[in-house]
Amino acid sequence: MRILRKIFFGPELAYEVRKVDKGNVLHCKKPSKALRTSLHLASHLAIAVIVGLPIMMGFLQIRAKAIQSRADEARATELAHQQQIAKDSYCLARTLYFEASSKPHSEGDLTDMLAIGQDIVERVASNAYAETVCGVVNEVRTSKVTGEDVAMYSYTFDRRGTPQGHKWVKAQIVAKYLLKDWQTNGRNFQYYPEVRRLASHSVNYHAEGVRPYWAKADVDNCRLLPLGKIGAHYHYANFREVDKAGYEACRVRRYATYSRSQHVAGR
Predict the structure, then answer these.
(1) CB 39 within 8 A of CB 7
(2) How would you label 194-205 residue by residue, b for 16+ Cβ within 10 Å and e otherwise?
(3) Concatenated DSSP letters for 113-134?
(4) How far apart are CA 160 and CA 155, in angstroms?
(5) CA distance 193 to 227
(6) Residue 100 carries which DSSP code?
(7) Which pLDDT tens digit goes with each residue over 149-190?
(8) What is the pTM of this model?
(9) Measured over all CA atoms, what is the biggest interatomic distance in the chain, rounded to whole angstroms?
(10) How far apart are CA 114 and CA 65, in angstroms?
């Protein structure tokens, strides 16, 4: 303690020195009580600073590293998000290009693109399909009829050519606005609201003149609700999500019809 006092406060503050001419002996008078108390507190404060400063600096370094780590993670997450948006936009644009009507220079192909695009983002929002646009359009399922693997969107198996021309430009623009609207506004459609509300909750569609097996089977068993023709395709919504009460009533009617048929067959 005495050494610390001398180091930080100097020997002249450690003691009040008085020379006394008695045999060349240096006599020292003890400092006053107030001075001793001040020196005592000051020395403890110095020790606290010496010991505590490295600890504080270490804590600040750990804190700075944690903040930097979180910032790096946030940047990486944002970068991955932006990359996924770019991929989804490309996948959606290709799907609109190949699946939508090819009527040149008309509103028919735009309406068709909007309705098909709405169908795809509705699938992304549903728990029954993949979580990304690219996952939805590249999905392959086993056919209930043939048992073979079937692409949900046939163009992904057909190896068609590279999109180009006016229709490709339009498909990219529509895809961009559809995804932007969906991610920022949800179902509060800001872009092309009329067509998109017609196709709201649509999860299936087929072209005019085509009658796939699921169109009749899933409507008969109350899984799908016909939304009518939008653009060049007929669209269907998930009945239960759109109208739960109507879905339950349909199931009751379906069961009653099945019971009557079984009763007639048993006669």
Answers:
(1) no
(2) ebbebbbbbbbb
(3) HHHHHHHHHHHHHSTTS-SSHH
(4) 7
(5) 16
(6) S
(7) 888 888 888 777 888 888 899 999 999 999 988 887 776 777
(8) 0.68
(9) 141
(10) 47
* Amino acid letter for position 164: Q
Asked if 47 contacts 61 with a C-beta cutoff of 8 angstroms, the reply is no
Helices (DSSP H) in the chain: which residue ranges?
Answer: 2-9, 11-14, 33-99, 107-125, 133-137, 155-158, 165-185, 193-198, 213-220, 239-242, 244-265
Round to whole Å and give the CA distance between 79 and 3.
58
Residue among 102, 83, 87, 123 at smallest CA distance from 170: 102
120, 140, 226, 160: CA torsion to nearest 10: 70
Contact 93/171 with Cβ under 8 angstroms?
yes
Terminal-residue alpha carbon distance, the chain: 111
CA distance 28 to 15: 7
Q: Which two tokens stand for residue 186?
A: 């949800």
- How many degrees, rounded to 5, is the angle at CA 210 between CA 173 and CA 233? 30
Quote the crossing angle between the two packed helices 33-99 and 165-185, to the nearest 10°.
140
Burial class of 178 by CB neighbour count within 10 A (0 to 12, 13 to 18, 19+)? buried
The Cα angle at residue 242 between residues 84 and 139, in degrees rounded to 5 = 35
CA angle, residues 171, 140, 247, in degrees to nearest 5: 85
Report the range of poorest mean pLDDT among 3-7, 54-58, 224-228, 250-254: 3-7
* pLDDT per residue as tens digits for the range 28-72: 555 666 766 777 777 777 777 787 777 878 778 888 888 888 888
| Residue 48 neighbours by CB under 8 Å, 6+ apart | none
- Closest listed residue to residue 14, CA positions, set 27, 24, 1: 1
